[in-house]
Amino acid sequence: MLQLKTKYKTWIRIYKLLIFLVISLIFLSVTILPVNTYVRILSGILAVPFLYITLILSYSIYQFASIGGNYQSKIHDLIVSKVKWDGDGTLLDIGTGSGSLIIKLAKAFPTSVLTGIDYWGGNWEYSKAQCQQNAEIEGVSHQIHFVKASASELPFNENEFDVIVSCLTFHEVKDRSNKTDVIKEALRVLKPGGEFVFLDLFMDEKIFGDEKEQLLNDLKKYGVSELNRSKLDKEMKLPKILLNKKVLGNAVILSGRK
Ligand SMILES: C[S@@+](CC[C@H](N)C(=O)[O-])C[C@H]1O[C@@H](n2cnc3c(N)ncnc32)[C@H](O)[C@@H]1O
């Protein structure tokens, strides 16, 4: 019988890589065409940044994937290790993607009930069906509900969850311009005393504002009573390419309690 395999896919979307690859190839092909020398030189110069991004994206995919450095799975393991919980109660994963993190959490906390939400838009290569299939293959589908919803407006009551995790999702939420509001929404559905572990590009000022002056103070205003902060690259050794600011160079883990 055909054995189904889990599919998690990396955080780098293949269509993005293809766009940069195609543009690089177009510019490169002009350099060998029998056209004006200046046009060929200009095309060669224009090809450089696109080639550079193509290389960064390709190598990042390799480092994130299980056939390469497996860093995506290692980062999820790190988040799981940050959850200090007895597993009694409910957990929410915001922006669950292909279910990789929530499935690890279900295995780590076999008595817990978990919910994974995502809007699974067409611009991502993840789906609810893929999450469900992955959970079934991993033997934890009885523990997890997958719900289609936006992180900007969670379909849950206040104080509903004992634990909330989120990995690289807040900065992606397009239907809320102020990304700190998305974190506020996450904290709304967390029980008082409940635990959170959020990994995101919190050091990117263009997305979250000044982290230390603004973001951390805002979290306290939203009811966070205990707050720990650590830079991802201080928690684990990452390949240099993943430390690029456009990849994980601005990644920080914020954890604590409401
Ligand atoms: C970089 S991926 C991370 C996925 C997953 N957390 C992981 O670590 O594998 C970002 C995720 O955010 C989700 N996302 C983007 N905007 C969202 C929104 N408004 N509401 C919920 N999820 C969203 C995407 O669908 C995608 O799954």
Automatic annotation (TrEMBL):
<keyword id="KW-1133">Transmembrane helix</keyword>
<feature type="transmembrane region" description="Helical">
    <location>
        <begin position="41"/>
        <end position="62"/>
    </location>
</feature>
<keyword id="KW-0812">Transmembrane</keyword>
<dbReference type="InterPro" id="IPR029063">
    <property type="entry name" value="SAM-dependent_MTases_sf"/>
</dbReference>
<feature type="domain" description="Methyltransferase type 11">
    <location>
        <begin position="92"/>
        <end position="198"/>
    </location>
</feature>
<dbReference type="Pfam" id="PF08241">
    <property type="entry name" value="Methyltransf_11"/>
</dbReference>
<feature type="transmembrane region" description="Helical">
    <location>
        <begin position="12"/>
        <end position="35"/>
    </location>
</feature>
<dbReference type="GO" id="GO:0008168">
    <property type="term" value="F:methyltransferase activity"/>
</dbReference>
<protein>
    <submittedName>
        <fullName>Methyltransferase type 11</fullName>
    </submittedName>
</protein>
<dbReference type="GO" id="GO:0032259">
    <property type="term" value="P:methylation"/>
</dbReference>
<keyword id="KW-0489">Methyltransferase</keyword>
<keyword id="KW-0808">Transferase</keyword>
<keyword id="KW-0472">Membrane</keyword>
<dbReference type="InterPro" id="IPR013216">
    <property type="entry name" value="Methyltransf_11"/>
</dbReference>
